[in-house]
Amino acid sequence: MFLIAGPCAIESRDMIMTTAAHLKAVTEKLNLRLYFKSSFDKANRTSDSPRGIGMDEGLRILQEVKTQFDLPILTDVHECWQCQPVAEVADVLQIPAFLSRQTDLIQSAARTGRIVNIKKGQFMAPCDLQGAIDKINNLKSQINNQQSPLTTQPIWLTERGSSFGYGRLVVDMTGLVEMKRFGYPVIFDATHSVQLPSNGTGITGGNRELVPYLMRAALAVGVDGIFLEVHPNPDKAISDAANQLRLDDIESILTQAKQYDFIASQS
User: In angstroms, rounded to a whole number, what is the distance separating the alpha carbons of residues 117 and 261?
Assistant: First the structure.
């Protein structure tokens, strides 16, 4: 099992460095591979809410995390032109769920040679990810046929819940099994899966107390990675305040995760 973790949005340098230091210490103690995640822009918003610190300053802070803590970086891209400058810092480019059918964005991310993490849209069935995978593999074939090989970094696939009527997400654990059949690492995003989107207040709600239950279920299925958004004071976060985990709770939650991952690996 590997871990993707960090605050939903980059709010300040001090908050990011505090969170990264704590996550680094905990994951080293538990012998977990960590990819530090935070977003410089939250472009997909329910309302006109704060979006983050911006790309230039955000990438500078993420580079500082990478250098100071020797951590690989994962962050979102929303537009094609962002992919190349983001790839100069990030080891993994993440395609947001709402953009998981955007051909040009997916292929622009793949052209960088970085790992591409595709978050399955809330509106997509697991089998629909075949289209996104094909967009990358067809691009690789075209480039390789031109004697200019594209780096064969893996594709990652992330489950983050499916829309169930209005204002609720559900997770189909059998969908994780279907996603694993593609042959790429499958990640379960436990914090976004407990969102209560568009709940009428203009702010996405959620229930962080349910995160460990869904995380344990996904690990029992046999996912390769877990995605957790954490924050020193999540109730004050500018994004996903209701479903981000408290930084002080992360060690106990990850200790549970390792236990379930070990049990799953023995079956």
Answer: 21
